[in-house]
Amino acid sequence: METQPNILVVEDDQELAYNIKRFIDFADVQTVFDGLVGLSQAQTNIYDLLILDLMLPNKNGLDILKELRQNFVTTPVLILTAKDTLTDKLKGFELGADDYLTKPFHREELLARVKALLKRNGLLLGSDRLQVGDLRLDITKHQVQIQTKLVNLNAKEFDILVYLIQNKNAIITKAQLFDRIWGFDSTTALTVVEVYMSNLRKKISLATGFEIKTLRNVGYLLKVESENK
Q1: Which homologous superfamily is 6-121 in?
Q2: Which one in 56, 91, 148, 198 has a CA-CA gap of 20 to 30 Å to 159?
Q3: How far apart are CA 209 and CA 134, in angstroms?
Q4: What's the CATH architecture for 156-224?
Q5: In this structure, are residues 61 and 53 in contact, taking their beta carbons and an 8 Å threshold?
Q6: With contact defined as beta carbons under 8 Å apart, do 35 and 63 qualify?
Q7: Where are the domains of the chain?
Q8: What is the pTM for the complete model shown?
């Protein structure tokens, strides 16, 4: 089964937020209606895209964006707002926004912008093949290949590998992996991440050109050699 992108929508207009969730039916979309709650959720860094309103209760969108970037959260951000002046747009881009869509908007334009941002990170069909070193991964076929040899991974191992590749050269905490792969509401123990990571390493041990590092008390890092020469 193909891994769905995770999207967080921070929008205080609940009807609009639910409509956005309904529009983006190819992703796992979560909605929150408060700025402080949105910041807390976004800081988990398990999302592939953040759709962010600017006029929010308790903390505005620009302050959320500024704090995320200051804390090195690099999740792509699509600002969605009624504030359409050039000054507003420039401020958003200066703080680290990736795109800007003003209200009211057409459903088709929202979908086009969302898909463009996701494709940039290899998260949609059309960008469904990922590669690190001599390991190639096909998201659609759920297939992993090292040189000419196919590698048999179970669903969770495959999803972990996809997530690591999509976040190569970035530190991923154990909690982030757990929330992304098993879900917020899972009753499984956090230590399951170590078990699956150990099994994954054994199965791809012959792959070259990258290394999955364990950072004690921090998390994991997929280090790609060719990008650091």
Answers
A1: Response regulator (3.40.50.2300)
A2: 148
A3: 6
A4: Orthogonal Bundle (1.10)
A5: yes
A6: yes
A7: 6-121, 156-224
A8: 0.61
